[in-house]
Design brief:
The protein is an alpha+beta fold. The protein is built from 12 helices and 21 strands. It has 2 domains: about 250 residues, FAD/NAD(P)-binding domain; about 150 residues, no CATH class. Helix 1 runs parallel beside helix 12.
């Protein structure tokens, strides 16, 4: 059984290793100069490759009812067994799973060595231009398999395979939209697709004061609102010169992308003191005024939140940082305090897919079986980000890659 895997990312390598274990002759066609390039950037270079709290509720899709049936076939424990079998030592932190050395390169290395061990042919710098299913012979007998047209630096060539696994990924991280090859190849077989859009990405805001807060990192609550709907997350917020970033923002960005696509007005509220409720903060603030009323407004807020944030909020409330705290009316002081709990901003965009960790959209799950074979084309399998599934931060997207890659590799190698 000759199997061609189009794409040497996480799901492609998992598929290739699995298919080879089941006795198939496997070739990976990767358009980049090396396989697994995206893995090195995951988890800030530490590679959060899965999560103990795996659930289909951690994912988004146009066909959410299909996700659970796929994940149940190869979950977190299966992934741990897979990587332990490759020699990777692992560790857990708050449910997230990492290599024990906390180096993403370790995950990539064990996968690369497994490809070599199982004699998988890896052809880098090989862009697939077209995949064509073989037609019937002159005698009328059905001729199974595929012919793949490959573009390399030296020119074009043709490869022949019995099965094809499409593991081309999404447009996330691609600087050139023309590199989004998987959707075109899937479209050649008539598979229904949803256009890719940024899902885990930074949000751009309208207000100019973000330039004054750029570089600040702090624990905060983030609430995004659009069309009567509200989504909330808490975690380390990052303020940039154009808007907001950080894990809570990435978790909410998918909703923002969809809302902006439907031209809905989008806003966010930032809570810079998520550990306190409104009344606790009010009581604390009034007590602070009694104790520190002799301080300037700049000094009064030291130790509460980052000074860049206070500087912006004082300016919005027309309060000089040199004004003595006791000379500021209680109403104005409470107004500043309220903004620390409810800081409104207007979201007017998301960063492009080139800066996204993951994209939403892809081939509809209704187009594939539970073993990831295309319903419209026997012998064609799809995996990973090419499918219309995107997960939260925390190792869920890599888990989807391992799950779909292993299932597709096993099914492709086992079926005749």
């Amino acid at each position: 059984m000759k199997i061609g895997v189009i794409g040497g990312g996480a799901s492609g390598m998992a598929a290739a290793i699995t298919a080879a274990r089941y006795g198939a002759d496997v070739t990976i066609l990767e358009q980049n100069e090396r396989v697994g390039k995206k893995i090195l950037a995951t988890g800030n270079g530490k590679c959060n490759f899965s999560n103990l709290h795996l659930s289909d509720t951690c994912y988004h899709s146009g066909d959410p009812d299909r996700i659970g049936a796929i994940l149940r076939q190869f979950g977190t424990e299966d992934t741990l067994e897979f990587f332990h079998g490759l020699g990777l030592m692992t560790r857990e932190r708050n449910g997230g799973l990492y290599p024990a050395c906390e180096q993403a390169s370790a995950v990539l290395d064990v996968l690369r060595f497994a490809l070599e061990r199982h004699q998988v042919t890896v052809m880098t710098g090989s862009r697939v231009i077209q995949i064509r299913a073989k037609t019937k012979t002159g005698t009328g007998r059905e001729k199974r398999g595929f012919v793949v047209q490959v573009q390399k630096e030296g020119g074009q060539s043709l490869c022949s395979f019995d099965k094809i696994i499409l593991a081309c990924g999404s447009s996330a991280g691609l600087k050139n939209p023309d590199e989004e090859n998987g959707m075109k190849l899937a479209g050649g077989f008539g598979l229904r697709r949803i256009p890719f859009f940024p899902a885990l990405v930074q949000l751009r805001c309208q207000e100019s004061f973000f330039r004054a807060m750029a570089g600040v990192r702090c624990q905060a609550g983030v609430t995004v609102k659009a069309g009567g709907q509200t989504w909330e997350e808490t975690g380390e917020l990052q303020l940039t010169d154009y808007g907001i970033s950080g894990i809570p923002v990435l978790q909410l960005s998918r909703h923002a992308s969809v809302a902006l696509h439907h031209q809905k007005t989008l806003s966010a509220v930032l809570d810079f003191l998520p550990q306190l409720n409104e009344e606790e903060w009010r009581v604390m603030l009034l007590a602070r005024r009694k104790k520190l009323g002799f301080e300037t407004m700049e000094q009064f807020w030291i130790g509460t939140v980052h000074k860049k944030i206070i500087g912006v909020i004082l300016k919005i409330n027309c309060i000089s940082p040199h004004e003595i705290a006791r000379n500021v009316t209680i109403e104005k002081l409470l107004s500043v305090g309220k903004m620390l709990k409810q800081f409104p901003v207007t979201i007017n965009g998301v960063n492009p897919s080139a800066q996204a960790q993951v994209c939403g959209g892809g081939v509809r799950l209704t187009e594939v079986t539970d073993s990831l074979e295309a319903r419209r084309q026997k012998g064609l399998y799809l995996t990973g980000e090419l499918l219309d599934v995107d997960g939260r931060c925390g190792g869920y997207n890599l888990q989807w890659a391992w799950t779909t890659g292993v299932l597709a590799g096993k099914a492709a190698a086992e079926t005749i």
